[in-house]
Amino acid sequence: MPNELHERNRASWNAATERHLTHRRDLPARLRTGAPILFAEELELLGDLAGRRLAHLQCNDGADTLALARLGARATGVDISDVAIAAARAHSVASGIAASFERADVLDWSAAATARGVSFDVVFASYGALPWIADLDAWMRAAAAVLAPGGRLVVVEFHPQLYVFEEGWRIERSYFGAPGGNVWQEGVEDYVGYTGGGAGEAAAAARGWVNPHPCVEFQWTIGEVIGGALAAGLALERFAEHPHCNGWQPFPDMRGDEQRRFHPPAGREQPLMFSLAARKPG
């Protein structure tokens, strides 16, 4: 059954993805030439992917899914956005990298995949996936359900601490989130357009772009993330916090580096991402 809040976000993501794609026309060429797409944190946790069955939950436009397939994974990407999945399929054709893509709410997809007896060696999610899920425990159960015995869940995600701030590093909301999530009338942002753009006109235009569809975002604490994985029957193998944002510049005063990481100003150091690996008992 469709989740009402997820469906609201689907409309916002469709509009945002259309906007994001205008900044990413070079993606198929980057995939073909082996340009860096993935980051060190996920590559270290994922390890050797050759021949591994991998499900990438909330895969967006398929860039990371195809980069994982380029490393040898038998990859399936799942996303709720119609626009994102259409783009992912087009990127697969244009890059010459094979992967499967399915348009679905990940909770519905997991139930259907489990009913068909489909399973994966790795379930992966990263960078802004969990805040769009209305029920984190259900998401963890869905991930665990499609893992084969001995399979691993790998999550690299922005830290919930980051979401308490607004520009200027002002604390504006609770770390523990709001019942029913936070409703943003401006919808999903054009974060692709403003990341790395500094204070230029293009970055300012991207920050000023308003999505015609509102969205609902959910704040999950580190305790809820780890607790959800354990409650789903997974055994925690690794957990780490990281003092930078990979590929996203949430605030203009963050500085980028040659590894496509963005760091807070001096004196604002804090956990901005976390990474987790958990295994389904064999």
From TrEMBL:
The answer to keyword Chaperone applying to this record is no
Keywords on record = Methyltransferase, Transferase
Q: What is its EC number?
A: 2.1.-.-
GO molecular function annotations of the record = methyltransferase activity
All copies of the Methyltransferase domain together span 58-151
Q: What class of enzyme is it?
A: transferase
One biological process term from GO is: methylation
> Which InterPro entries does the record associate with it?
Methyltransf_25, SAM-dependent_MTases_sf
User: Could you tell me which PANTHER family the record lists for this protein?
Assistant: TRANS-ACONITATE 2-METHYLTRANSFERASE, TRANS-ACONITATE 2-METHYLTRANSFERASE-RELATED
UniProt-recorded name of the protein = Class I SAM-dependent methyltransferase
